[in-house]
Amino acid sequence: DAMVIQNPRYQVTQFGKPVTLSCSQTLNHNVMYWYQQKSSQAPKLLFHYYDKDFNNEADTPDNFQSRRPNTSFCFLDIRSPGLGDAAMYLCATSTQGQLYGYTFGSGTRLTVV
Amino acid sequence: SQQGEEDPQALSIQEGENATMNCSYKTSINNLQWYRQNSGRGLVHLILIRSNEREKHSGRLRVTLDTSKKSSSLLITASRAADTASYFCATDASNTGKLIFGQGTTLQVKP
What we know:
- The complex is a heterodimer of chains A (113) and B (111).
- Chain A is mainly beta and 113 residues long.
- Chain A has strands at residues 4-7, 10-13, 19-25, 31-37, 44-50, 53-56, 64-67, 73-78, 87-94, 103-104, 108-112.
- Chain A is built from no helices and eleven strands.
- In chain A, the strands form two sheets. In chain A, strands 2, 4, 5, 6, 9, 10 and 11 form a seven-stranded mixed beta sheet that branches. In chain A, strands 1-3-8-7 form a four-stranded antiparallel beta sheet, with no helix packed on it.
- The N and C termini of chain A lie far apart (36 Å).
- Helices cover 0% and strands 60% of the residues of chain B.
- In chain B, strands 2, 4, 5, 9, 10 and 11 form a six-stranded mixed beta sheet that branches.
- Chain A binds chain B through residues 4, 6, 31, 33, 35, 41-45, 48, 50, 55, 88, 90, 92, 96, 98-107, 109, and chain B through 2, 4, 30-31, 33, 35, 40-45, 48, 88, 92, 97-104.
């Protein structure tokens, strides 16, 4: 089935140690998004790619970077994770115009120790 | 900045009852969407309503949109224990191409 896959489901990283979360899609959607969701809060948009065009949210910390090497894959890099970065990270895709809404992956739960 | 506010924050009902959740937003929108999130999982798209639509149905779901009041409601009829989840509204603000989520309503359906 076409879907959005996030790996790993659970990631534990040390304070300050760079970590990369991955997202892949088989939907051939041209837009990919990364959201951060802390406990009992709304998902917060970090950035999105429209094809290869990167769009950063104004309040996304510089600590967060992203790469999209091709249509299918998108990565979230956290250069120096702090305790406050512990959260669920959600990847989503959509088509131009969002005719049918977003398709989300199952998320990666990041723990910083 | 947060676009959507949801009401109530938490709702507990008995199986078979109807559940109504409300969402208000601040700016002009292209469409408004509702998502469900089971605990510890990703979000699942439920329904999308465009700014020129007033009501939409999908199975046991009914969504209304009032652009003059900048508000929407999600009605789940004949609720089931499996409907227990958090429900989020999200708005696609005009010309931004990105979804901004509300705080969500946590629904508990008791068997």
